[in-house]
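Working notes for the structural subgroup meeting. M.R. asked for a predicted model of this chain before we commit to crystallization trials. I am recording the input and output together here so anyone reviewing the notebook later can reproduce the run.

Input as submitted:
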Amino acid sequence: MSDTVYFVLCAILALGVLIGLSMLSKVKTAVTGNMISILCTAGAIVITMFKYELLSAIGLWICLVLGLLVGVYWSFTLKMIQMPQVVALLNSFGGAAAALVAIVTMLDVAPLPTFALITAALALVVGTLTFTGSVVAAGKLHKLISQKPIIWKGHQAITTISLVLTLAAMVLMCIPSVPLPASVIFGILISGFFGIAFTVRVGGADMPITISLLVSLSGVADGIAGMAISNILLVSLGGIVGASGLLLTKIMCMAMNRSLSDILMGRTSVQPSAEAPFLKTAPAGTQDSEPVQDDSVSEGEPTDDVMKLLQQAKNVIIVPGYGMALAQAQQKVKVLADKLEARGASVDFAIHPVAGRMPGHMNVLLAEADVPYEKLRSMEEINHEFENCDLVIVIGANDVINPAANTAKDTPIYGMPILNVDQAKNVIICNYDMSPGYAGVDNPLYTKPGVVMMLGNAEETVQELIDKAGAAANSPGEVIPEQDKDGDEGGKDGDELANLLKSTNRVIIVPGYGMALAQAQQKVKVLADKLEARGASVDFAIHPV
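Returned structure, recorded in token form:
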């Protein structure tokens, strides 16, 4: 393959990756964009092997097949709740790959030009610190390491010294009189330690920003490694990943109103919170005790309030948070949304940019639950709609809805853009307990009139909402068909049908042309979801004609 053809193909593949990454910014096009990037990356591997006549290298093919098998296995076995740590782990592989390329380049028999030696040394230290930092991030997200900031005695001094020694190692690698193997080993050890030191003091809630920064560093390391071996494809793709990761880091810092230096230094400013006031709560799940109800908020039982809200609401906004991810409640949240829509309500999802533990965490979970893309609304897009909606349902979110961010000047969340849940007339909050969020700031929304707290595991509290939504569907507030109102026979048939649906464990739905004429497929899906929510197994029998 001539150099001209190779460079043209490299440009096309780099452009394809760039297009794929740009498509990831929209939920509707994310899957297509991901596939484009995958195909372009695979193409880059193939043309590189062809260019350097490596197609006959059996060992290389064995490594490629092993990597492919591991990736396919993970794609079928890993759960969506594990995606943040998987992203961090995969990012560590990118850093390790850059470091390995640098090591092989520097320890080659032939002496390197000065530029290649400098870039290889830089790729080694950046790749190694990216590897160790990403491994620590994955460990924190998987709870193998404490998710709280781990601050050593003299941590700042240790980090600064390790950074200086890392730079010194780079200089040593470029001095001909210093034995190269010794300086390479020293560079690996000290840069690896630096990666651990700067990542270990980042708290779990700040991991989305840390991961996006590590992604950027991984791209930078790969791009520099490409310079060391004069590979234009590696330089271009590494540069794209590095730039996009850095841009995402900046966007997320702005969304949290945090500086990157504060996050990397573990400055969370978490302070002990004041004792939570009495809250209006609805009992949920396996709570051992019920919080005291504040009668000054409203009269009547909270459970009755919830049922009325679910029955009367026409415009509903659901706000998912990390609590939904922990409880793996996204499937039940989808069932709840379907039930509300079956009653004629309009349901949207408000997504805060830093909700969860990785960029796009809530989008990934809700997409897994088959929530339509167009219902996943960004904070900027939906914030003005809260004041006019009938009901907001919060599932495991705290800091991103805390109105103290607008008023409490001496708190770490002051100035952080939030979802305007406090402007809604009625709010149901399904949080595990009344404790403040990661920032340690009490949430005044909990005591606001019109707010009902449902405490406990999100999977259980959302199931209660589903049950109450079902009960509301049969309440007097809903229109009853005339044949059921006036005739005993119709009521009897309705009771028999209800009992049949309640008692069945195995259901087969047979769709036909009548469903197509009535365009009832969405309603059929809602029916199937309701039956499955009750524990029934549902299948569809499709006749070929």
